[in-house]
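Why show two proteins at once? Because comparison is the fastest way to build intuition. When a single record is shown, students tend to memorize it. When two are placed side by side, the eye starts asking what differs. So, the first record is below.
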Amino acid sequence: MEPYQVYLNIDLLDAVPRSGCQRQEIMKFIYTLRDQPRTKGDYTDKDASLQIRQIKIIGDYAVTYWLDDAVKSVMVVDVRPADK
């Protein structure tokens, strides 16, 4: 399978520490989505347009993303502290 492009607004990373283990794990996961775009999250939800989104918990953070097969892309749409 050809690698997918992964898109995110760089401002999303303001929610995570600027360095350290948590940031490394989040970035590692985002890079993994390039080669494994169908990676399932721990949860799913739907946005206002009924797009199914995956939510992956990584340490203390939740990464929300969805797959756009038509353009071979993964859209990372949210990174925030996970609910406890």
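Second record. Ask yourself what differs from the first in the token line.
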Amino acid sequence: MAAHASIALPRADWLALHHEDAIEPDLPIVDAHHHLWVLPGASYLQADLGQDLRTGHDIRATVFVDCHSHYLADGPEALRPVGETAFAAAQALAFAQTGSRTQICAAIVGWADLALGDGIEPVLERHIEAGQGRFRGIRARPTWHRDPAVHPATEGREGILRDDTARQEATRRLGAMGLSLDLWVYHTQLPDVAFLADQCPDTPMVLNHCGGPLGIGPYAGQRAQVFDAWRGHIRALAQRPNLRLKLGGLAMHRMGFGLDLADRPALSEVIANAWSPYFEVCIEAFGADRCMFESNFPVDKVGCSYPVLWNAFKHATKACSPSERTQLFSGTAARTYGIDLSLQPAS
């Protein structure tokens, strides 16, 4: 099963129009969210990730997150996603043979059907086995909006996190097994995330992509209004201690910043200025020890290159203290996903 064909593909010739050297190259980073996949004419595998990692930033480890790719071709439907976990573990082992100091896929976040309820446990056990010590949990993507201009539903429908008791039971089972739940939803669905967090307080949850503040369809030209609504939701979510937050994903087209529509790639300072208000709200609400930066590559590669992205994150956090930046760039992700950074080989 391939990654979703609706994903926009990066344009190498366009990205080549702007180059930046990495700033603060000695700041340790755990990339808390990336994908590996094969799309027609656009594979992004461990060697491709490796090229991005070698652009100057000190990436100590990465977290692989599901993209519905490399599923098993046969066998029980519920177990087919285990193939993606096995694939990610194999990619990690292959990359380790290159001698790089970076632990790619040091943590693996796969996929399993929450609709299985209690029946999710044997599926998770198979993921754990396939992950060879790297499997940390699953991601659900119940993105939903009634306007098709925003995005067609993946796993979502209106109220799915609130009214589906099987999904709630599966979420509790994750926590009982020492695993976490990543969530990708739009800002309009954030109250439902709060409800799920309250129903499953013992399950660690990680909200992806700043909580999905939309900027297309009915939200085009409504940035101030969206920001105000989104900010209120983020502040409410921060009251749930089992929730953490990934800072990133804002280069995606549906966020409405238009990086992918410009004649040339933007400078990292320009990107930082556009995104800083969102990061500031998240960090103020959750604290640096519950926030972590993510590249969301190669999805966000439609808007900027890897070195430019991390430069933007660094520019955006200049006002943070050294201890806060340590948490944002590596500490929170390492702690959330059980990554031992002491395993780094000497450079």
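One difference worth noting in the second protein: Residues 1-5 have pLDDT under 50 and may be disordered.
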